[in-house]
Amino acid sequence: MSRFWSDLTHQLKPYTPGEQPRMADLVKLNTNESPTGPSPKAMAAIAAEAADTLRLYPDPEARALRETLARYHGVAPEQVFVGNGSDEVLAHAFAALLKHEAPLLFPDITYSFYPVYCRLFGVAYETVPLDGAMAVRIEDYRRPAGAIILPNPNAPTGVALSRAQIRQLLDEHPEAPVVIDEAYVDFGAQTAIPLVAEHPNLLVVQTMSKSRALAGLRVGYAIGDAALIEGLTRVKDSFNSYPLGRPAQAGAIASIEDEAFFQASREAVIAERGRLTAGLEARGFTASPSSANFVFARHGSRGGADLAAALRERAVIVRHFAAPRTADHLRITVGTPAQTDRLLEALDEVLGGGPG
Ligand SMILES: *Cc1c(COP(=O)(O)O)cnc(C)c1O
Description:
Blueprint: H1 7-11, E1 27-29, H2 40-48, H3 63-73, E2 80-83, H4 85-96, E3 104-107, H5 113-121, E4 125-128, E5 147-151, H6 163-172, E6 178-181, E7 202-207, E8 220-224, H7 226-236, H8 246-257, H9 259-281, E9 285-287, E10 294-299, H10 304-313, E11 316-318, E12 329-333, H11 337-351
Parallel strand pairs: 1-11, 3-4, 3-5, 5-6, 6-7
Antiparallel strand pairs: 2-8, 7-8, 9-10, 10-12
Helix pairs in contact: 2-8, 3-8, 4-5, 4-7
Bound molecules: pyridoxal-5'-phosphate (PLP).
């Protein structure tokens, strides 16, 4: 605290990122990072940017990257916005599109950054409870809405809506901007991008942090009607004209162009998710059906905080969210097969005995 802080700074409730501990031989399954590295072609493209050209500012419009993304997703470059991680893209969306007189709606259990942005930008919001199966019910959004934001698959539950359900939500709210945060869509959900053509109120946000193993590069993007993108660009150019450096732009392009590597890595995560889920269920956990690179699971008799602490003593870090409806659960990132084995062995020690 300081008397030099502004009122706004006093009122903020900042997001707490998952920890990045420095422990030896750690099994780190708490922030949904990729267990394998990025595309070697992306790494080579990033390395090639360590050159004299770094004295020059990067392209403020990131044209080459936006053209690559537009081709990949079958839209026009004017329908693509890029930013310094999708968190920045989301922040610009809150400022540009989600602040209205009627409240912004999002689920009660969801990405915990949303209420943080609401405070920063003074956005009124209401949360809509997930149903008993921890799923979003589109029918529950039939109420006055200035705008709507949903992750699909949802975080931290991993539960996905179908494209038909997203279409229903859009059809029921033609006057409200709707942001679909698809941070985990590549692990088994349907993207809403094909709906952009018919729905000028839809913004789809994706990231290179999870399925493309580039969390450290900070590249996220949004796809929507050109007029929505123009709104985001107005906010971005009122904040930072150069959110993506040269290495980030080049690495992101090379990653998108390496389709074979991308497909192989997402398939490996999906396969390992099945093994992790089965291993947890054999040890008394109930897991929500996951379309993401993590599993949200609850043990029959042991609390989430207790289990997370016991795993931590065995150098296995998972995520626990202390809120009332999530306190029983753990969110466990899908790691390598060796990391899954370490986690399951640690659970056997903690729970006393092998799979039942
Ligand atoms: C990880 C995550 C993001 C942010 O990712 P960036 O690394 O900032 O691109 C956004 N939304 C959800 C739901 C996430 O889990």
